């Protein structure tokens, strides 16, 4: 059934097309308090981010667990600070290797994409993907050979995924740093700073 949207007294009102054919007293409206247009759209269309993720053919990996004495994220107000996430496949196995030595650049990019999916899994568990307001910053580390210089191209695997899944909410600042080794022998590790909807 189609919906018609209108603003009444500062409130976004969504009514079915059929409701407009009823007498005023018989119309039933679904309302949400107006805050911002993006928030209004998300409040009406629940689950849209998860649906888009599935439609794109992506599967979230198992929830990440700390590999040391830390938490996977810390929250301060409406900001989430996500710990470094490593490339975990949907079956729970971990991608390993050094880019430029064991892995080609394209394989490193795939590993960065897996890091992005792991970040999305943590966000999904923490607040739900529809409550992600803005990804503000990524800090990425790439384990690579001394002569490998395309760390930004590798980390694009994560950035492009966030743009694809979250749209403008996934646009972020970023650092991409090369290193000789990473924990557990993984090729990429990525952390994030993310703003979420108030009260989520």
What's the topology here?
Elements lengths: L2 E6 L2 E6 L13 E4 L3 H8 L3 H8 L17 E4 L2 E7 L19 H22 L5 E12 L7 H16 L6 E7 L8 E9 L4
Parallel strand pairs: 6-7
Antiparallel strand pairs: 1-2, 2-3, 4-5, 5-8, 6-8
What CATH architecture of the largest domain do you see?
Answer: 2-Layer Sandwich
**Total helix count?**
4
How many E-type strands? Answer: 8
What is the straight-line distance between the termini? 29 Å
Assign the CATH topology of the largest domain. 60s Ribosomal Protein L30, Chain: A
Strand content: 25-35%
Instruction: Give the SSE string.
Output: EEEHHEEHEHEE
Indicate the percent of residues in helices.
25-40%
Structural class: alpha+beta
Largest sheet: 5 strands, mixed
Low-pLDDT runs of 5+ residues are 1-46
How does the overall form come out from the CA principal axes?
A: globular
CATH homologous superfamily title of the largest domain: RutC-like
The CATH class of the largest domain: Alpha Beta
Strand order within the widest sheet?
4-5-8-6-7
